[in-house]
Specification:
With 193 residues, the protein is an alpha+beta fold. Helices cover 32% and strands 21% of the residues. A six-stranded mixed β-sheet has the order 1-8-9-4-3-2, with helices on one face. It has a two-stranded antiparallel ribbon with strand order 5-10. The protein has a domain of 135 residues: OB fold (Dihydrolipoamide Acetyltransferase, E2P) (Beta Barrel). α4 runs parallel beside α5.
Length: 193
């Protein structure tokens, strides 16, 4: 093995570095190619079967929690019907006045409640954001929409008033967001979004 007496440099081995402008052009071209590839669905890596949002029937699978009232099952966004949970960046106030991120707490509690169990969601409609509106249940048949409202992590929402009894129960027990002061999520969105 040859011992180097003098450390080799680019000049000594005959190579020259790329000029900065050429390197910049190469980086820009690589980024443009990557963006172009991401915009073309046929060039994206497959993500598994994606259910049709407009199809009727039952959605089955494990959910990824997006926020306190939205989940994702196999790439399909599902908005839990008849409830409205605080937005992720929404804060609520404790009786002492201290603020806490109740939207993140609602999502965290939903994630813990689901605990990776498969869900069965009955489709009802499609909302203006192309999410499926559905009522979802755990394998034991328990309605997670009702659970979120009963535990105080969401409010009953909509004209049907499906979960008004669960909301009254949470309010009386001062559960979840009912333990202090908060703006209803629809009012918070009107003011902040």
């Amino acid at each position: 093995m040859r011992a180097w007496t003098v450390r080799p440099t680019l000049a000594r081995i005959g190579a020259r570095p790329l000029p900065a402008r050429s390197l910049l052009v190469l980086v820009i071209l690589a980024l443009a190619a990557a963006v172009h590839a991401l915009k073309r669905p046929e060039l994206r890596p497959p993500r598994g079967p994606r259910p049709d949002a407009s199809a009727q029937g039952v959605i089955l699978g494990r959910a990824r929690v997006i926020d306190g009232d939205t989940i994702d099952i196999s790439g399909l966004r599902v908005r839990l019907q008849g409830i409205d949970a605080p937005e992720m960046d929404q804060s609520c106030a404790e009786p002492s006045g201290a603020r806490w991120l109740c939207g993140r707490a609602a999502a965290r509690e939903l994630r813990a409640h689901l605990a990776g169990q498969p869900l069965s969601c009955d489709r009802d409609d499609i909302d203006r954001y192309q999410r499926v509106l559905a009522t979802c249940a755990l394998p034991d048949g328990s309605d997670i929409n009702a659970w979120l409202v009963r535990e105080g992590w969401a409010l009953a929402y909509g004209y049907a008033g499906t979960y008004r009894a669960e909301e009254a129960e949470a309010q009386a027990a001062r559960c979840g967001i009912w333990s202090g002061n908060f703006l209803p999520p629809w009012e918070w969105r009107r003011r902040h979004m």
